[in-house]
Amino acid sequence: MTPTPSATLAQPATPTPSATLTGPRPAAARLTIAEAAERTGLTTHTLRYYERDGLMLRAVERTSSGHRAYGEGDLVWITLLTCLRATGMPIREVKVYAELVRSGEGNELVRLDLLQSHRARVLAQLAEVTSHLGAIDNKIGVYTAKLEAAGLDFERAATG
Amino acid sequence: MTPTPSATLAQPATPTPSATLTGPRPAAARLTIAEAAERTGLTTHTLRYYERDGLMLRAVERTSSGHRAYGEGDLVWITLLTCLRATGMPIREVKVYAELVRSGEGNELVRLDLLQSHRARVLAQLAEVTSHLGAIDNKIGVYTAKLEAAGLDFERAATG
DNA sequence: ATCTGCCTTGGAGTGCGCTCGAAGTCAAGT
DNA sequence: ACTTGACTTCGAGCGCACTCCAAGGCAGAT
Predict the structure, then answer these.
(1) Which residues lie closer than 8 Å to A47 by C-beta, 6 or more apart?
(2) Which of A76, A114, A136 would you mutate first to test chain B, the one with the most B CBs within 10 A?
(3) Of B24, B26, B101, B133, which one's alpha carbon is 20 to 30 angstroms from that of A155?
(4) A1-104 adopts what CATH topology?
């Protein structure tokens, strides 16, 4: 394939000055945008779009050449984003949540509220979809019965 | 409110020549588009859009003045449309289904296939949403615990 | 030195599903 | 006769969430 993509970035123990910015741990692995895309199931386009749109907690780190370098924390956050988005939270609301988290401690109650009302909406929507699915199941039952009957007719005709 | 809206249309036993077109029954009640909208939960805009877009089985009947007059069959069909749409079937696929039904008997197997693969997709999506909801529930649990702990601290501080 | 390939940016484009507006018709009420 | 209000059509507009493009930068391989 291609040469190791994260050549300049993933030097496991390099004492880069920015290492201390992320935390006390020496140096976490950094991923290129393509790798992050693969891990998260999003496209690179979408990852850039999310960052542009303010859905990330902070700007993603960069290598010396300006390429994005995703850390473990970024991936964890993107995973949460994906949960919220996949359950139907609009981007504008995800953004609100991100802003709350970004602004630090003290608003946990607001965040909880936001998550809980989202949860309620999701439950309602699950119930609705399930009920509509029931109606579709009925329809499927009708067609199945119809075709089974036709099948019997056919069998009778073929056998008789 | 407004005077009886369906004045010209809903004359229960009028032997209008078009009555026989719908079926052997004398005269089914006909609804204005506004009434149909109210019953189905769609807007009048959406009802017209669906018809324009070929989602209806046939053009909705009209009064002498050109107004739409929805019959029971139309409402039943719209209800099915709503089930399909609410479970995430794209309009283009609903259209395919409508075309199958429109083209008469003989393609029941194809219709069944379509409904069953839709059903499978819906089940998959329900599972996905449910699983992501679980992750969100965890997050909610974390915040709840955090706030409960803070609440205890607060209580201790207030009491002590 | 040049080629390859992944990355960067800002901005434009796409697909879906409505949603709305303008201009006009019709029937009933005053 | 005129006003009101619900309806008609056609076509444009909108919000959402991507998705893509053009032009360019940088690093490693040949």
Answers:
(1) A33, A36, A37, A40, A68, A78
(2) A136
(3) B101
(4) Multidrug-efflux Transporter Regulator; Chain: A; Domain 2 (1.10.1660)
